[in-house]
Structure formats: C-alpha cells, structure tokens
Amino acid sequence: MTPLVVRPRPQADALAARLRAAGHSPLVHPLLELRPGDDLTHLPHQLQQAEIVIAVSRHAALFARDFLLQTGQTWPNIDYFAVGEASAEALRESGVPALWPDDPRSEGLLALPGLHRIAGKRVLILRGNGGRELIADTLRERGADVTCLSVYRRHYPAQDGEALCQEWQHAGLDSLLVTSGELLETLLALVPAHYREWLLRLPLFVPSPRIAEQAAQAGFLDITTARGADHDALLAALELRKMQ
Q1: pLDDT in tens, 32-51
Q2: For residues 123 and 139, is the Cβ–Cβ distance under 8 A?
Q3: Hey, which bits of the chain come out as E strands?
Q4: Is the model's pLDDT at 53 over the cut of 80?
C-alpha cells in the first residue's frame, strides 16, 4: 500500500522505514512540527515535587526525557502512567516503567485503578500546548493536586494544499495514517474543496475510537481503528487491510 504519513519527524521517518521494510511505499509529509515547550525548564523542579507523573503522548515523554539527559538529571523513583503503549514505551526507553490502559484514550487512562484513590496526591501531567483538559479536570475532581507542564509545543507550517494533492495523486496515494485529532483537522483544512471527496474515500487508519468518531463525523467512509499509535499497531492494521 501507499499510505500518507503526516505525523511529525523524527517519528514519521521511523514509521516510514518500518512500513517500507514490510513492503509498503509510504509518502512522508509531516503536517506538524514539534518544538521545545515553554515549561520545559521547570521540569526538574516539578519532578521533585511530584508523586505521580502522567505522559499524555509519546512526544511529551520524549521531550521530557531528552531535556533530562541534556541537563544530566534523572527521573525520580515515583509512579508513572501513560495514555497509551507508545508513550509508555518512550518512558521505558529511559528506564522508567509506566502503566498504561488497553484503551489508549484519556478515558482509558482515568479508568486505571492507580488513578482513583489519589486525594491529596501531587500529579504532574506532561503534555504539549493545548489539548484536552479531561485528565487534569477529572483528577482534580478526585482530590489530586494537579500541575500541567507543556514540555513541547505544536507548530503547523504553511502548506500548498493544491500542489500537495496533485503530488499525492500522482504518487498513487491509496490510504492515510493519521495519529491525532489535531492532525486530522489540519489535513482536512489543507485539502481544497474539490479534492475533498477523493480524500474522504481513501482508507483511513487511526489509533483510537475517539479519532475514529471524529473522522466519521467529518465524512470519512472507510475508517480502521488500530490498536494504538505505535509503529507495530499501525503496520498491523495496514497488513490486515492488505490481505482483505
């Protein structure tokens, strides 16, 4: 298959390499750039205060990990949670074990037993700028003292949607890999109206039921929900589709 990979680098390149090794021909065109967040320098101090750390994305875990490595600091011996397996794996790569839910959404994370009786606990949430407030709001309702740290920020560079659609069609694009709701919205906004029907008919692969629902509401007709946003899960979904 010839899927479009729109997630930011370097994750986009790593995913594309994995897909090529399995015989696919991905087109890599990141719609998003990630940069260090304004709160990143506060990370060491906040980690000293925290009893629980939650990484809401792989990007959050990686930016935090890289900053600690660059400044010669380490993760404290406390409890760690991640929204999905990809973010948990990023923490594990740093030597930090983390719990994650089978349902890779905020709702799945909040259902974990370790995040229920947390009244009075100091919770640090590692995330990007913006995003959903459900985790922070729910944990505060449960009595936790919650601090949110923007360890990275999103930047959406200007793109020529007309030229890109022509390029993608010429290259034989036949599917889409979209790993976040923000990327889905960016892709939809980028594509000119006269290409919209073509786009909506392409098989779309997403990592969670929430994004699948968002895609259905936007008009996509062929949606597959992978087991998560990690490379193996996305590849498995593509492989299954190729065999059908």
Answers
A1: 889 999 899 999 999 999 99
A2: yes
A3: 3-5, 27-28, 33-36, 52-55, 79-82, 122-128, 145-155, 175-177, 204-206, 223-225
A4: yes
